[in-house]
Amino acid sequence: MDEILRVEGLSKQFVKKSMFSSKKSLVKAVEDVSFSLYNDEVLVIAGESGSGKTTIAKLILRAITPDSGKV
């Protein structure tokens, strides 16, 4: 089987600003995600709202830059 996608140690954080103060905090959206996808395989990313599914997709598509790891 041919490997068509490899994700290694992918992590992404975002700065969350408080609505009522100038305080900022870091939110870990994705932390140390790794997987490989091979020809003729199907990958499903499932989870609750806010669990990082869309962030993983944007990282794979290179729409956003990871803090660490590689695609």
Automatic annotation (TrEMBL):
It comes from the Archaea. Keywords: ATP-binding, Nucleotide-binding, Transport. GO terms for molecular function: ATP binding; ATP hydrolysis activity. InterPro entries: ABC_transp_ATP-bind, ABC_transporter-like_ATP-bd, P-loop_NTPase, Sigma_54_int_dom_ATP-bd_1. This is ATP-binding cassette domain-containing protein. Residues 31-71 form the ABC transporter domain. It holds the Pfam family ABC_tran.
